[in-house]
Amino acid sequence: xxxxxxxxxxxxxxxxxxxxxxxxxxxxxxxxxxxxxxxxxxxxxxxxxxxxxxxxxxxxxxxxxxxxxxxxxxxxxxxxxxxxxxxxxxxxxxxxxxxxxxxxxxxxxxxxxxxxxxxxxxxxxxxxxxxxxxxxxxxxxxxxxxxxxxxxxxxxxxxxxxxxxxxxxxxxxxxxxxxxxxxxxxxxxxxxxxxxxxxxxx
Length: 202
What we know:
Elements: H1 2-32, H2 45-69, H3 74-77, H4 85-109, H5 137-152, H6 156-184, H7 186-194
Helix pairs in contact: 1-2, 1-4, 2-6, 4-5, 5-6, 6-7
């Protein structure tokens, strides 16, 4: 299974980002006439969060490709306690589930899909579909994807990518919550009380 993982992981992330970010963004841009990538530039704290997001994605992309070029690189950072077919199978399952979950959530967002916070256009507040179980299903899916990656490829670097990526997503979530509260007021506040930030189990 180790050889399968070496090829599965880079192909997975290429397809993941091609479909869930590039593909969906192009579709929304064509429909709305507006680029959905609204991550800010400059020296603000929010712009810094966006920059770190891009850095983590770059490290992730490079790190997933390295095992193809250097098959033994995993041994340098391997966490042997988790290095088993059971964990690898669990990781693959989580990654596939995360991909389906994220794409479903993005399709349910329709024209409201953005990469970042759109300060210039009021977007519809989506509360149906997966959004009735999670206020942030896309971030939940991305977290699951990183967790699956760590399980399938249990190394110290994959662990740090999971932790740092999760922290950045939690910061972004809170920034978006403040924005949605400004845009939608009491409607969002009611939704926020009813549905959990990451997942509501009821």
